[in-house]
Amino acid sequence: MEVVHERCCGLDVHKKTVVACVITPKARQVRTFGTMTQDLLELGEWLVAEGVTHVAMESTGVYWKPVFNLLEGCELELLVVNARHIKAVPGRKTDVKDAEWIADLLRHGLLQASFVPNREQRELRELVRYRRTLIEQRSHEVQRVQKVLEGANVKLSDVATDIMGVSGRAMLRAMIEGEQSPQALAEMAHGRLKRKRGSLEKALRSSVGAHQRYMLRHLLEHIEFMEREIAALDRAIEERMRPFEVGIGMIDEIWGIGRRTAEEILAEIGLDVSRWPTHKHLASWAKICPGNNESAGKRKSGRTGKGNRWLHSILVEAANNVSRNRASYYGAQYHRIARRRGRQRALVAVAHSLLTAIYHMLRDGTVHQDLGAEYFDRLDRERATHRAVQRLRRLGYEVTLQPVAA
């Protein structure tokens, strides 16, 4: 087999150790290093001294990240590869054999590197992902507030759309301070909630005790703390997203997608989508397209597989928003598929369409143009006409079609 890289190294990365196998034209050497900073610096010095040009490692949890970060400055070609693609022969597994197997595959050019963005984008990803985690945790705390209120028979959520709005927070703070009069609490309503004062008085007639006040106090303080942290992250992310403003503006043009969602998408894929030859490669990398598993003429599981879970959840959430607009292409696509295949598959299909549109917008610099809800009818005019006629006939009508003059 042809040798592609004469001097290469395979790394088997663990939490406490890194097994390195260096293959050169003269010899094959195996050494084990710790994962402390000094140990990884020694690993880098050894690789440079041996004249290694390419290094490959598995994407094992988060343990590969410090190794990648420290070796990044040693002028080495680093490859992080999917562990599923480089499994060794079963029954002959040790850390040394794993490192040798990785080095052999790398030497003969049989490894494909995973996409690892530059350091600036990796740091941006961490901030954006942490913000998303805090937003999810805040939602969980709001749900706990609602559970505490239900336990005290406070039916505020039955009347108010958002119990953490201005009116809801004012009522919660008053309850925490010991106010129990439904009339006094209902007087704290603002805006459109004032019209529901009678319903509010009924909903706020409750039995809030010392335990519920204690829980509400701590939950409300925790929610407000997380909101301050989210606001601080918003400012830090906004500063780092300045080079992405053009891309954010393009994605923000899509109905149902806001700035925050656009920031999360760009933090995951970046502005340069040319690293994926086509939109199909990007969808496959994000695992937002059906799986391909066919044998003996039979289609087996079409599961999307495991990919970038952050990007997957962002796109599905965005698909859920854009599909609410029935007058758009995405709304028509969602309802067309959901009738036959179910809601979850329809959302994945819409997410795939969104990612395809975003790919072309970023690659070509084009503006988003919705194809419209009538796109599928125009695509197959005869079939749509036949379906409409048959439906009317089942309802007991005799249908005669007369084309309208242009």
Structural features, described:
It is a single chain. The protein has 406 residues and is α/β, with parallel strands linked by helices. The chain contains 17 helices and seven strands. It has helices spanning 37-49, 64-71, 95-107, 119-151, 156-159, 166-176, 182-186, 197-203, 210-240, 245-252, 259-269, 279-286, 309-322, 329-341, 343-364, 375-379, 381-394; strands at 8-13, 17-23, 28-34, 54-58, 77-81, 294-295, 298-299. The strands form two sheets. It has a five-stranded mixed sheet. Strands 6-7 form a two-stranded antiparallel sheet. A hairpin with a 2-residue loop joins strand 6 and strand 7. The radius of gyration is 29 Å and the shape is globular. The mean pLDDT is 90.
Beta-strand content: 5-15%
Q: Could you tell me the radius of gyration in angstroms?
A: 29 Å
Structural class by SSE content: alpha/beta
Number of E-state strands:
7
What's the order of the H and E elements? EEEHEHEHHHHHHHHHHEEHHHHH
Instruction: Indicate the mean pLDDT.
Output: 90
How many helices does DSSP assign?
Answer: 17
- Trace the largest sheet across and list its strands: 3-2-1-4-5
Distance between the termini: 67 Å
Report the helical percentage. 40-55%
Largest β sheet strand count, sense and barrel closure: 5 strands, mixed
Q: What spatial form do the alpha-carbon principal axes imply? A: globular
Low-confidence stretches: none
What is the assembly state of the chains in this entry?
single chain
